[in-house]
Amino acid sequence: MELELARFDPEPCGFPRPRLSPLPDKPDLTARNWRSVILSYRARRHYRHFTRGRYALGEAYRLSDVNRDGALLAPAYHCVTMLDPAMALGADIVLYPLQPDLSPVLNKLDELLAAYGKPVKAFLATHYFGLAKNFSNLKKWCDGHRIVLIEDCSHALFTEAFQAPGTGIFGRFVSASPYKFFACEDGGLLFSPDAQLLDTVNTRSAGVVPELRGIKRIIEKSRLNGPTACGHRLDRRAACKIECATAGCRIRADHAVFPAVIALLG
User: Fold this and answer.
1) 47-50, strands of its sheet edge to edge
2) Mean pLDDT of 52-66
3) What is the rounded distance in angstroms from the CA atom of residue 205 to the CA atom of residue 216?
């Protein structure tokens, strides 16, 4: 299915700078509270980790039977990475309209289903710009039509330890992009409240060398963006430690070792 895309340029609109942080307000991560944070994780079997949120979203589509025989209902306002995974599965994409507050226009959904006429397997609902939407009525509509609701939390904080209030509580699957909120090279997350739905999803760690390459790229980016505490310490003092617990490997980045590691990783 070929889609006509209209690119949105926000620059002429003069939108004001955001005043609300998408991150938690001064999260207390002291040693006293860190144990309670770890213990508050939902069971690990409810989560799968990916390089990017788009890959987690693609897996959610696959698990929802989005394919040549099952279409996806997606918001008309989107980026291509939200649709690419469904198109890669050969699925048709039906775009639904949004209200000015970027919530779905519910009274138009039945018309879309009737006009399309083929099975729709999944509905993608997005929390835009870190602002949580109440998808409770949408969930009822999806359940009534036997359509899988997928929550897109790529703009909202959603990790195993923290999640923005009101997010990740409606969808059968939830995709997130933690790397957009933290100083890390990558990171995507797939969550389901029903852990059995993820039993067929098998992922594996990238290994020591790719992780070190990621650290190298972060350091290089910090240099391009000007002097930072981390950049200066690594460049001038090399006082940082790179520790890899994988396979019991530990590497100390001192004056002699760190330049050699950088050269080795290329």
Assistant:
1) 47-50, 188-191, 173-176, 148-153, 120-126, 71-75, 93-96
2) 94
3) 18
Render pLDDT for 151-160 as a digit per residue (tens, 0 to 9): 999 999 888 8
Strands 188-191 and 47-50 turn out to be antiparallel
Same domain, 128 and 250: no
**How high is the pLDDT of residue 261?**
45
End-to-end CA distance of the chain: 41
185 is in which domain, residue-wise? 11-198
Q: Is the dihedral of CA 132, 134, 158, 155 positive or negative?
A: negative
Which of 176, 198, 220 is the C-terminal boundary of a domain? 198
CA gap 161, 29 in Å, rounded: 11
Does the CA dihedral 108-177-68-147 come out positive or negative?
Answer: negative
Bigger pLDDT: 134 vs 241: 134
Look up residue 225 and give its two tokens: 């963006």
Structure token digits, residue 74: 């997606």
Buried b (16+ CB within 10 A) or exposed e, 19-29: eeeeeeeeeee
Q: Where are the beta strands (DSSP E) in 142-234?
A: 148-153, 173-176, 188-191
> pLDDT digits over 184-236, tens only?
778 889 999 998 888 888 877 777 777 777 777 777 776 665 554 444 444 44
Where is the domain boundary, 175, 198, 221? 198
